[in-house]
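The following block was generated as part of the benchmark described in Methods. Ligand: adenosine-5'-diphosphate.
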Amino acid sequence: MSQNLNTQELPTVPTPTKKIINLEHIFKIYGSGDTEVRALNDVNLIVETGEYCSIMGPSGSGKSTAMNIIGCLDRPTSGNYYLDDIDVAQMDDKQLAHIRNQKIGFVFQQFHLLPQLSALENVMLPMVYASVSAKERHDRATEALIRVGLGTRLSNKPTQLSGGQQQRVAIARAIVNNPVLLLADEPTGALDTHTTQEVLAIFGELNRSGMTVVMVTHELDVARHTQRIAWFVDGQVVHSHLTPGELNRVVVSR
Ligand SMILES: Nc1ncnc2c1ncn2[C@@H]1O[C@H](COP(=O)(O)OP(=O)(O)O)[C@@H](O)[C@H]1O
Ligand SMILES: [Mg+2]
């Protein structure tokens, strides 16, 4: 039989891609003529599966604009964006909302929890759109809260929790749908030093368990916890792979 084997007919095994974020020549232009603002001016950025990356740069350099596009909250004016190999740059709002719910978890500086709901109910919310049974929603939300160290605070409302605990509820909500990508925009901006360390410890643990984490921060001490820093200036990525050790040199030289 073996002499009949024709290697050209063997099924080809697809090479697993490692790019979770692939931004190619991304422009985001507001206004026109004299008032034109190039918030993103030819951004190229690749983040591979499993990376822990921070985005830094001066105020107005395009960090939030880039995060909104990466997070499928906004579309570029032009350019290609492949999220987990899916071409999302020109998707409409409904398609973007769907892909966002499936693939992305968000953590913001202000925790954006609903005050009238318990921690558990807040974490169950993202699954409302994911056609998950009530029991499974309850179980998965409980599991996510245990994972961030809040297993004993399930029924507390946000006002009954400290800032750090509220941010941990927000992290549980972000991971409950098992996203491939966790995005955080200044997640420690409203927290004190001690609580910042707690939140960074959770991000570190999520990353070690395989989740890709991308975080905007203006704090060097926060960025130092990540493996890699992308440095934005004037709507462009001027350094895509700074190590925390190289950061001082860049920041001091500016
Ligand atoms: N909706 C908008 N309309 C007009 N200009 C905007 C808008 N959003 C952002 N910009 C401009 O784009 C540039 C980049 O903004 P942003 O991404 O918020 O920067 P960063 O987050 O790095 O501070 C800034 O010059 C900002 O004023
Ligand atoms: Mg910003």
